[in-house]
Amino acid sequence: MSGRDAILSRVRTSLGRHALDGDRRAEAQARLDGHPRGIVPARADRDRPGQIDLFVEMAEGVAATVDRVASPDDVPGAVGDFLAQRNLGTDIRMAPDERLNDIDWSRRPILSITKGASQGDDEVSVTAAYAGIAETGTLLLHSGPASPTTLNFLPDNHIVVLRASQIVGAYEDAWDRLRAAGALPRTVNMITGPSRTGDIEQTIMLGAHGPRRLHIVLVEDE
Amino acid sequence: MKSTSPRFKENARAALANETLQSALDKMESGFVVNRAAAAARLPEFEALRDQGREIKNHTLAHLDFYLEAFETKVREAGGTVHWAATAEDARRIILDICRSVDARTATKGKSMITEEIGLNAYLEANDIQPVETDLGEYIIQLRNETPSHIIAPAIHVRKNEVAETFHKAHDHLDPDRSLEEPRALLDEARAELRQKYIDADVGITGANFLIAETGSSVIVTNEGNGDLTQTLPKIHIAVASLEKVVPTFEDATVLLRLLARSATGQEFSSYTTFSTGPRRPEDPDGPEQYHVVLLDNGRSGMLGTALQEALRCIRCGACMNHCPVYGSIGGHAYGWVYPGPIGSVLTPTFIGVEEGRHLPNASTFCGRCESVCPMRIPLPKLMRHFREQAFEQKLSPATERMGLGLWAFFARRPALYRWATGLAIGLLGAFGRRRGRFRSLPFAHGWTQYRDLPAPRGKSFQQQWTARRGRRERER
Questions:
Q1: B145 and B128 co-located in one domain
Q2: Which residues contact A104 (CB under 8 A, 6 or more apart)?
Q3: B136-143 vs B183-200: helix axis angle to the nearest 10?
Q4: Do B143 and B217 sit in the same domain of this protein?
Q5: B414 and B435 fall within a common domain
């Protein structure tokens, strides 16, 4: 008997039954297919401006910085200012994402942009978020041709462009959007603040192995 | 991993006398405990989520075979492979075979208690594959040749000056006169040292906080980002997880995620929660080419349908040990095996046997603090009592202990005799202790009076007082 069959048969013996069949199997399958929601905290039950404010408040609460801008045209300026204020040079590694490509980066001509995955020698990355979750100020990004996962983790500074219309209240709202978009990507990243550790004497320090800084440029498109 | 659990008493005594360890443990109450309470208080639904979390796990365990098969089907559909490991040895061999298939020389590792349970690092080393721990705490203890003393803060027993010493010794290619006084300098050095190792590794090995049957995803929850680099950069990603990590859907995982970080560190949410499903897609610019899940049983299937099934709800947040007065006094290593604290006192005798692990269920005052904070409402004191009973029944406890219990049982089964004997004892102790009000030593009670005085009883026994009061109350009516 293979490891698989032996394990499954022991599980069934311990549970005192054979493999599920009939109604019980149909019930479990229906639960799987229907993926019912559990308790969703009321925290994010607000009007749209309230949800967006909550997202910002929670993200800033975990040491992310947020810059609210009026239109995509303001993004290059916001990115340039962030780099200038922190002496981070002008090189950025950008995700080859349509929503970023559509931005007129010549508005800040000094920025030197390359595109694609990171090999580990980039100081600054710019990526586009898939969603923002107000509940905890969490960003949701996923892998794909337009969004290399390495950009979320290797550079010291991670800049994420998020549109207000992408902000949802609870995690479950983001799952609904992901399901509607089709097959699940290889990697779904929920990112809540910059990388941190408390492993040395329980002292919290930012910038463990991932980015030291997480900067969100929030385009108010609603 | 070989256990030192049979020497628990000696371990505990040494831990109590270890000043470095004691100073490291002092910080726990002001950190984890305060932060958890604040996080729970900020979320009005927290207690209701705990109930729901328990129900989700109970449902999943009752249908475990169904959800495991569903999970496997989805992993396969996404292009990954599921390997079933009945024992720790099976799991080690499966992982080695995968590593050998690409002639791996190094494997980076995300923090994973399950790989501690199967003793993976020593096995890989013995087979010429260098495991590289990448979580800062795990990296520190790997260099120190130690095991984790806490399931989420593995180096909680190490002080920063000890870390500096360790780094000076291990990173001997760096300037020996550099300053490593500040934690920041230590962190930056570890970050820089590990950077190239992530990129050079052939295989990345992580654990999993959850497996999702609906999609075939493995989920890791981290703060440092090391787990993500581990599962993104190498050619192969291996996720090692025990059977009970599976949950039905994203929504179910969400309920548990809302509980996990709050219970563990008091964070609203950890920095990184990542869902991995299969290998990179053909059009993806990065990610691993192969995705393997090793499903480990190692005795868990036998816990189903028994009292111990409740322990399989554990989501490894560490709240029970953070709040345990015994853990807080002796740290994790004294427990002598992989999992310390109250959950360890249940899992250790389960996995390595009552005879080896029998001291651990006694390492509890049954104050109940662990159960009161466990997000999955695991009745930890009840499960420890289960093992105390087993140890008694199997005559594993010392003869004096069993004789004492036998004597007590003799009286307890004879209420009239019990009342007479306790009344007599209290009267005698009260009479002898009247002058000082307390006893500094007593025959047969050295274990108690060695550390504190026994207050001398005043007046009558509880039962006598109860009878007297009830009588009075009835008269008042």
A1: yes
A2: A72, A73, A76
A3: 90
A4: yes
A5: yes
B276 phi/psi in degrees, rounded to 5? -110, 130
Rg (CA), chain A: 21
Q: State how many domains chain B has.
A: 3
Q: pLDDT tens, B71-126?
A: 999 999 999 999 999 999 999 999 999 999 999 999 999 999 999 999 999 999 99
SS3 state at A127? strand
Based on the fold, state whether residues B26 and B95 are members of the same structural domain.
no
What is the rounded CA–CA span in Å between residue B289 and residue B287? 7
Same domain, B239 and B350: no
Residues B143 and B231 in one domain: yes
Q: Judge: B284–A25 Cβ closer than 8 Å, yes or no.
A: no
Beta strands in B124-190 (DSSP E): 130-133
Q: For residue B56, give the nearest of B204, B232, B227, B247 by alpha carbon.
A: B247
Which residues form the domain of B135? 58-157+198-301
Minimum distance, in Å, between the CA of residue B158 and any CA atom of chain A? 7
Instruction: Give the whole-angstrom CA distance, residue B10 versus residue B4.
Output: 10
**Mean pLDDT in residue range B412-416:** 92
Report yes or no: B339 and B348 within 8 Å, Cβ to Cβ: yes
Phi and psi, residue A112, nearest 5°: -110, 110
Amino acid at B253: A
Residue B363 lies in a domain: yes
Instruction: Indicate if B129 and B220 belong to the same structural domain.
Output: yes
| Token pair listed for B28 | 């726990």
Cβ distance B147 to B321 under 8 Å?
A: no
Do residues B379 and B346 lie in contact, with contact meaning Cβ atoms separated by under 8 Å? Answer: no
Question: Do residues B271 and B345 both lie within one domain?
Answer: no
The sign one gets for the Cα dihedral A121, A72, A144, A63 is positive
Please give chain A's pLDDT, 222 residues, in tens: 579 999 999 999 999 999 999 999 999 999 999 999 999 999 999 999 999 999 999 999 999 999 999 999 999 999 999 999 999 999 999 999 999 999 999 999 999 999 999 999 999 999 999 999 999 999 999 999 999 999 999 999 999 999 999 999 999 999 999 999 998 999 999 999 999 999 999 889 999 999 999 999 999 998
Domains of chain A: 1-36 (no CATH), 43-219 (3.40.50.10420)
Out of A8, A24, A31, whose CB is closest to B248? A31
Amino acid B379 reads P
Using an 8 Å CB-CB cutoff, list chain A residues near B45: 39, 41-42
Query: What are the chain B neighbours of A28 within 8 Å (beta carbons)?
Result: 63, 66-67, 248
What is the signed CA dihedral for A94, A99, A103, A105, rounded to 10 degrees? Answer: 10
Q: Verify whether the Cβ–Cβ distance A199 to B195 is below 8 Å.
A: no
Structure tokens at B349: 């005798």
Query: Which residue on chain B is closest to A211 by alpha carbon?
Result: B225
**Among B397, B426, B458, residue at a domain's last position:** B397
Q: How many CB atoms lie within 10 A of CB B51?
A: 11
Enumerate the β-bridge partners of residue A69: A219
Query: Residue B424 and residue B107: Cα distance in Å, rounded?
Result: 69
Question: Mean pLDDT score of chain B, rounded to an integer?
Answer: 94
Cross-sheet strand order for the sheet of B81-85:
B81-85, B290-296, B236-242, B203-206, B106-109, B130-133
